[in-house]
Amino acid sequence: MSEFKGVWIFSEKFDLTLEMLGKAREVADKLHSKLSVVLIGSDIDERVNELVRHGADKVYLASDPALERFQVETYLGVLHSLVANYKPEVVLIGSTKNGKPLASRLATRLRVGCVPDCVRLDVDGEGRLVCERITYGGSAFAKIAFRGKPQIATVPQRAFEKPAPKEHDGQVVKIDVKIEPAGTEVVGVKPLGSSSVRIEDAEVIVSCGRGLQNKEDRVLLDELAQALCGQVGCSRPLAEDRKWFSEWVGLSGHKVKPKLYIACGISGVIQHVAGIRDAKVVVAINKDEQAPIFEVADYGVVGDLYQILPALKEAIKKHVQ
Amino acid sequence: MRRIIVCLKQAVDVAQLKVDAATRQLVTASAPRKMSDFDKNALEEAVRLKEKLGDTEVFTVTVCSEDAKSVLREALAIGADKAYSVNDAAFSGLDTFGTAYVLAEALRKIGGFDLVLCGETSLDSFSGLVGSRLAELLGLPLVSSVRKISVEGECVVAERSLEDAVETVKACMPAVVSVTREINQPRIPSLMMIMKASKKEIVAWSMADLGVSKELLEPKIEVVEVLAPKTERKKIRIKGENATEIAENLAKALVQEGVVGR
């Protein structure tokens, strides 16, 4: 297996590529190997320097007008031929909705393992990559190692800090691209109106669940969030079932790490709890004394959110002034 | 006749999982099982397509190492026409590659399908790899994270939920499509549907029936440990005579924590 050498990174999202560079640098140093980034796209040459300044020793540059937009088969073709040719021992791929199937198909094509959504990465005594991921709907963390190489893992957004840029020497390898035929055709793209602030960045989140009876009642949360200079979030059913919000907090939505998370009318299923594990202080407000959210809250209020929230807003205003 | 095959996982019902407080180990062996909810959305979508398009049959395939009868019966009650159970003790501990490989062999043996539907991920392991691995093994186009689907002639047109956009993708059939939970609200089968389902066929296959290579079933990953996280929340109840008093007490506590105020 010693023929496999080097730690590689790929993500079609440039920010995520930069985030992975810091952790990947540590892994590469532990393995005494080089850190490389695969950069795929069109007209992207000027990004090479930024990658090098963030720690890349080598950048494999696949630039072609046909690669302007992510397309899983074409990107997979480029990445697979590179990996099959250069044989890195570790390949980290950004765990986005596009990156994950890419990683999975790369691993399948190479007949190797793939560990998705790793929130911690380390190297064990035998030089194997050990990945940690959330499993069983958020009830547990699993530590997983590989049997065979390359070891392919995916890394979610915001799992690791982007490293600080510094002077660093790096090399560019330009790739002759062969475009594989695609089995799918993108016929339309509708960007989602993304709010200027991301909920992952919020210091305070006031979040609601099924206990909120009408869409309009979110004003109660908006007002409290405003008093706390925070943002409003929700649990999955309010977004996916009731369609009152476009995104949600939880295992399948956003994983957040605010100073303060106030869960209002949220029962606290484990998938939701998995999304708030990194909150510093959790407050639960719920009518049902038996709601599981109280087991994972620092402060619990058994009561009606319709009465507690307006009163809390006033009390907070008094203390903030 | 069009044929849609839905891949169904019998998953650990994570909501009913117990944790051994002393060891932080999960008690999975005795935990109740159920149909993975993402797969139930895939099944519901298949049945809706059948109702809309007509002249369509819906089959389900389940790869498992233990009895999954109740999940298969539920699938038939929801509207599947036939359920395939690929059950073998040797499948215990399959990883995502092994599962996709057995599924691929089962699908090849069933044959004649136009569309393969599966959940984007599973309720318990939450890996989200099997659908894409399956597409790769079958050499078929994959449309993942789908929240809306329609069949137009020989192609599927689907809306994919991405992080920052909704992408509409067209793929010619046969194709593999994985769905998100927002695609539909699965129906709850009526007593009549449950009774009708008892007359439908469940085909039971073992490893030998598929002729799968034992070597390819060897896991490509090794689970070193699975532990429940330590929860270190304070669990303090805030009380008071009325909402105002409770709110005041809570605000004070939050100020003391240093999470409210300047």
Q: Main traits of this protein?
A:
heterodimer; A: 321 residues; alpha/beta; Rossmann fold; 2 domains; seven-stranded parallel β-sheet; five-stranded parallel β-sheet; 27% helix; B: alpha/beta; nine-stranded mixed β-sheet
**Sheet with the most strands, sense and barrel status of chain B:** 9 strands, mixed
Q: Give the biggest beta sheet of chain A.
A: 7 strands, parallel
Strand order of the largest sheet of chain B: 11-10-9-12-8-1-6-7-13
What is the CATH superfamily classification of the largest domain in chain B?
Answer: HUPs
Mean pLDDT over all positions of chain A: 93
Can you count the beta strands of chain A? Answer: 16
Helix percent band of chain A: 25-40%
Number of helical stretches of at least 4 residues of chain B: 8
Strand percentage of chain B, roughly? 25-35%
Radius of gyration of chain A: 22 Å
H/E series of chain B: EEEEEHEHEHEHEEEEHEHHEEH
CATH topology of the largest domain in chain A: Rossmann fold
Radius of gyration of chain B: 22 Å
CATH domain fold name of the largest domain in chain B? Rossmann fold
Number of domains of chain B: 2
CATH class of the largest domain in chain B: Alpha Beta
Q: How many distinct beta strands of chain B?
A: 15
Termini separation of chain A: 64 Å
